[in-house]
Design goal:
With about 80 residues, the protein is mainly alpha-helical. The chain has two helices and no strands. It has a domain of about 55 residues. Helix 1 packs across helix 2. The protein is rod-shaped, with a radius of gyration of 30 Å. The relative contact order is 0.05.
Length: about 80
């Protein structure tokens, strides 16, 4: 009888440990997913800002009057970077 009880207690302990480990894995997965979601949102915001800046630079480059006026009021001349 005591052997059955000790096996039962051992199995109960083993299943409890596995259940807690599964909960920990799910929690870590959720935490990592939230971090990736935050990073993706930041990347999206930076891409939007980059697109706006490219549009502003192209508008300034296309109009000499705007370009000269912007330089007069203190705009720093944009550096052109050629990407491969």
């Amino acid at each position: 009888m005591s052997k059955k009880i000790s096996v039962f207690i051992f199995l109960l302990f083993l299943f409890s440990a596995l259940a807690f480990y599964k909960v920990k894995l799910v929690y870590d997965y959720k935490k990592d997913f939230e971090q990736l979601s935050k990073i993706e949102r930041k990347i999206s915001i930076l891409k939007d800002q980059n697109a706006k800046l490219k549009l502003e630079i192209s508008l300034i480059d296309s109009s000499p009057y705007i370009y000269e006026k912007a330089l007069k009021i203190g705009m720093i001349e944009p550096k052109k970077i050629n990407k491969l």
